[in-house]
Amino acid sequence: MSDKVMNQNREKTNQVDAYRRRFMSVVTGAAAAAAIAPGVFLREVQAADVTAKPADQPVSNKVRWGMLIDTKRLQDGGAAMVEACKKEHGWGNDPKARPDQQPQWIRTVKVTDKLTKNSFTLPVMCQHCETAPCVDVCPTGASMKRADGIVQVNKHICIGCRYCMMACPYKARSFVHESLTDQRPHSPRGMGTVESCNMCVHRIDNGQIPACAEAAPQAVIFGDLNDPQSRISQAMKELGGEQIRSDLGLNTGVRYLNI
Amino acid sequence: MFSKLKSVLLLPLLALVVYLAGCDAGPPVTQLATAKEKAEQCVEPVEDIRRNHMVYLNQHRDATVIEGIRTKKHSLNECINCHVAPTKADGEALHYPDKEHFCASCHTYAGVKIDCFQCHADRPQVLDNPDYQHKLSANSYHELSAAVSAPDMADMLLVTTGAQGAEK
Hints:
The complex is a heterodimer of chains A (259) and B (168). With 259 residues, chain A is of the alpha+beta class. Chain A has helices spanning 2-34, 79-89, 133-137, 163-167, 201-205, 211-215, 231-239; strands at residues 65-70, 106-112, 119-125, 143-145, 151-153, 174-175, 194-195, 220-224, 254-257. A 3-stranded mixed beta sheet of chain A has the order 8-1-9. In chain A, strands 2-3 form a two-stranded antiparallel ribbon. Chain A has a two-stranded antiparallel ribbon with strand order 4-5. The radius of gyration of chain A is 19 Å and the shape is globular. The model of chain A is unreliable at 29-38 (pLDDT under 50). Chain B is built from 8 helices and no strands. The N and C termini of chain B lie far apart (71 Å). Chain A binds chain B through residues 53, 55-59, 144, 146-148, 152, 154-156, 179-186, 188-193, 201-202, 204-206, and chain B through 61-63, 65-72, 77, 80, 93, 95, 118-125, 128-129.
């Protein structure tokens, strides 16, 4: 009996969510139509990109989270995004690690054309590939892709073999070499496990956008790649969205403009 | 010679008998650190949670990491928020290796070794989240019905004095 009631309630909330999504898609669609594409980035409300799912519901493969980063609009080359990530997840100051051992969930990479000396900087983190090499090689299944396309490490079963670090073409993964204390409660990190950008799963599950996207709203769009009406899909349809190392055919979830 | 051997054999036997006689006294009383007494009861009955908390935590961690289910009922973070104070009596940070830590206070007695806190935060993060404690009572927080217990005097005081009072 109570199950029936719960199911009805769930259906109701689903209907409400569907209504909200339709409403927001109409609103954002209208906004995209009114402004020319570059205006897509400038906005005040960010909450519309992620619809909060009920906490007791599993993530669904109907959505695929992705991020579009316009390097021209990043005045600092993404340094603010890196800082926001450090603050959110508490990495970057492991007391005993050498500088080259420090974990790096996201870093800025400067690219210079040898011939023309034209250069630009872009932030590089886990690209959340559809066919992720790190997931392929993991011997325990710790390196995993969630139903909604987020690639992350299940540290409960990670044995610290670092095969995924070898496999990742983006150098996105790091290894924790030392015992840590006072980790961020929502972002457990510990010795002997591999870690990387997880697109702030704890925030997405709460209906928030990732910390780095929040730190650079003028240059980053976060949203659902599967929804043709979402702001990110609209922007990519209009402006394109390049993958780095697109030759590998990994269908990354993180895309770039002006690289 | 023979009597000497007998006494050598007898002495440890006697010691063993005395030692085993001590077992009748039952286990010594554990010095379990108190929860912050915000809640009338835990998320499960005390007998159940003492025996099965590891089962609940294991199930919840897989649901959270793999499926993204983030209910608060069996979340380790919420256990910590309710049961562990951020600092010791002398103001120093309270960590799992300290015997005052709620989890450690029983695990050391039971001889249990866990590795949860190699990765997970072992105390509430007060600076980032001053409202880490339950404001009213644990009932709403733990998805129990409000009928289980009415907010008591201490809870009412918390409401009137606000978050600053809650940390004391």
